[in-house]
């Protein structure tokens, strides 16, 4: 353990923003989601090479954060979290947020300007990626990823009806890509520290004496998982079945998928203080000797992430209609080919 603590501290100081779960944890979430899919879900995602690709892509959004390009660093960091306390400071309720990213951003910016006393000041010189004014955009990243996957299923269905084998293969590759990358954001949501201002040690008033250690986030993400030997094979038979979260949006009504995502994040936020309490009781910290309760907590969060991810995948698949425009174009192509055939 003596060599682990300095390493975690160094990672905390040098990492470009906070991560949720190390790569191993994100792989577990994607693998649990695959295990929770219903039998009628498209079978091609379970082919060994597809399943491995989906697991590998769970780390993709964190890889994007390692580049120096400011536009990608800014969006890459903001898409990984939502500080729910900042919503309260802005007078915004989680169940009434706009499902449109830019509409929400405009509303939050107006509230921040109207009530600057509700938001702590920060040193602009340290805001190198220009993110400190924002609470994070994690639910919008999930909802937008869902829409991309739904689109991919829609055109896959059209290609499976009237496309070539190469077109079907390419469309399936797109589905695999969107499934894998989306898993990262849903997995982020399962890490309670990605829903709170107390994301890396307790901030502000601290009457209970919770840890303020700046290595706490990194420890929960990966240090404890490695120490406790948490892995997918040990959790595979506990994977939870996917649920159909909601039907397609109804015009002029709230997006039911976005609301499901917000409920998921609020439920994980309720686990923030219990996580700090575990650390206070020396049951999940870096010097923990009895790993039982800490292991149970982290495994539960990984299982929740896998269940939610599988549910978003299933909802995208069931809600995706056949792409009617593409279907018409493919039918026209087939008719044109038949007309000129000898």
Keywords:
mainly alpha, P1 Nuclease, 15 helices
State the order of secondary-structure elements, H for helix, E for strand: HHHHHHHHHHHHHHH
Q: How would you state the average pLDDT, rounded? A: 91
Number of strands: 0
Computed Rg: 22 Å
Distance between the termini: 76 Å
Assign the structural class, choosing from mainly alpha, mainly beta, alpha/beta, alpha+beta, or little secondary structure: mainly alpha
Class, according to the CATH hierarchy? Mainly Alpha
- What share of the residues does DSSP label as strand, in percent? under 5%
Number of helical segments? Answer: 15
The biggest sheet amounts to: none
Q: Work out the helicity level.
A: 55-70%
Textual characterization of the structure:
With 342 residues, the protein is an all-alpha fold. It has one domain: P1 Nuclease (Orthogonal Bundle). The chain is built from 15 helices and no strands. It is globular and about 85 Å long. The chain starts with a helix and ends with a helix.
